[in-house]
Amino acid sequence: MRRIALIAAALLVGACATHPPTPPRAPSTAQDWPSLAPVTLGHSVQVRQILHAAFQTHTVDLQCVVTVDSDRMTVIGLNTLGLRAFKVTYDGARIDEQRAPQVPAFVAGARLIEDIQLAFWPLPALQAALAPAGWTVTEPFAGTRRLLRDDALIAEVHYAGAEPWSGRVWLVNFRDRYSLAIDTSPL
Q1: Do the beta carbons of residue 166 and residue 184 sit within 8 Å?
Q2: Is 46 helix (H, G, I), strand (E, B) or coil?
Q3: I need a labelling partner for 150 at 20 to 30 A (CA). Which of 65, 102, 137, 170 fits?
Q4: CB atoms closer than 10 angstroms to residue 67
């Protein structure tokens, strides 16, 4: 019996040794900073966004409708066929996410809310909310916003024009190695 147990253990160890390496992990579903309440945007907005997301060798294109008022932020995403891929609602306290099974894991509701806020929220609101959590948000020159943690550059946002809610915005997350190109137009 002992001999069988030793053989089984040897086979198990051998199987582990030949198991292919795990692929690089996808970015976490949320950053480790607090999401801002919708009211901190300072005004209501409803826009259409074309979102091009890239993570490693994966890409996804989505059409989104983003609605923000003082009580709620809602993002509805449609795939290239016009079918609903997800709906994310954030009321300042809780994120509710409904998603189709084919939506890649790296397109996560909490992450999307935080990336939209990083790119489109007023700088003073971001600084006030993120500084107590150890984050620094700066705009070192026109058209560029940076997110830092312990002096390390985590993410950078570039704006094609002066008005972020109209035009193209690029966001690169260096820590989790993904990028977004967002084309925004009013509804």
Answers
A1: yes
A2: strand
A3: 170
A4: 16
Task: Please state, in angstroms and rounded to a whole number, the distance separating the CA atoms of residues 155 and 75.
Answer: 21
Whether residue 127 is contained in a domain is answered as yes
Which position has the token pair 């109209």? 166
H/E stretch holding 180: strand 178-186
Evaluate whether residue 1 is within a structural domain. Answer: no
**In whole angstroms, how far apart are CA 152 and each of 108, 135, 148?**
24, 10, 5
| 64 assigned to some structural domain | yes
State both tokens at 44: 């209501």
Nearest CA to 114 out of 57, 186, 47, 29 is that of: 29
CA R_g for the chain: 20
| Domain presence at residue 55 | yes
pLDDT in tens, 73-95: 999 999 888 999 999 999 999 99
- What values do phi and psi take at 23, rounded to 5? -65, 160
Tokens representing 141?
């020159």
Instruction: Output the pTM of the full model.
Output: 0.81
Instruction: Identify the domain containing residue 80 by its residue range.
Output: 10-16+22-186
Q: Which of 60, 2, 1, 69 is nearest to 26 (CA)?
A: 60
Which residue matches tokens 């147990």?
A: 5
Structural domains in the chain (count)? 1
